[in-house]
Amino acid sequence: MKKSILAVLMVSIFGLISCENTNGQAKKQQANRPKSKPAAEWKKTLTPNQYNIMVESGTEPPYKNAYYNNHEKGVYVSAATGDVLFTSDDKFDSGTGWPSFVKPVDPSKVEIVRDNSYGMSRNEVIEKSTGLHLGHVFDDGPANRGGKRYCMNSGALKFIKK
């Protein structure tokens, strides 16, 4: 009996995990996006880390990424398109281990979509022109700067120093 219950539990868990991240690249690209490409094309132009983060909606480890502790002046552009998304003037130390911003440079460059992966309900930030994953936005940012925390993956960005 214990083996049967364990087997049913394992099958259920596997089913949940395999279906959790259903908001991936294919679904996001269903909309008409001017710079979207098939995943195979992105694989040719993005590094393996960028591909994992942006196409497969991966997340890099906290404190082990390029920009969480970057304090230089400049802009952060999309690793896929080169479009300017964030600026160092809007970056702050959130203590989370990922680069965090209070707002995008141009809100029309990003889109917020519901992400119900991994048993959580979050607001995912994607690049509007491609549908590619950038990170998530939360309502726990600095209150005096709008209250938002755009928690981005360094691998989805490139920094251009001013």
- DSSP strand count: 9
Q: How would you sum up the major sheet?
A: 6 strands, antiparallel
Query: Roughly what is the average pLDDT, rounded to an integer?
Result: 86
Low-confidence runs of at least 5 consecutive residues = 4-27
What Rg, in angstroms, do the CA atoms define?
17 Å
SSE blueprint and pairings:
Layout: H1 2-20, H2 25-28, H3 39-45, H4 48-54, E1 74-78, E2 84-87, E3 91-92, E4 100-101, E5 110-115, E6 122-127, E7 133-138, E8 149-152, E9 157-161
Antiparallel strand pairs: 1-2, 1-9, 3-4, 4-8, 5-6, 6-7, 7-8
What does this protein look like?
This protein has helices at 2-20, 25-28, 39-45, 48-54, and strands at 74-78, 84-87, 91-92, 100-101, 110-115, 122-127, 133-138, 149-152, 157-161. It starts with a helix and ends with a strand. With 162 residues, the chain is of the alpha+beta class. The model is unreliable at 4-27 (pLDDT under 50). It has a 6-stranded antiparallel beta sheet with strand order 3-4-8-7-6-5, with no helix packed on it.
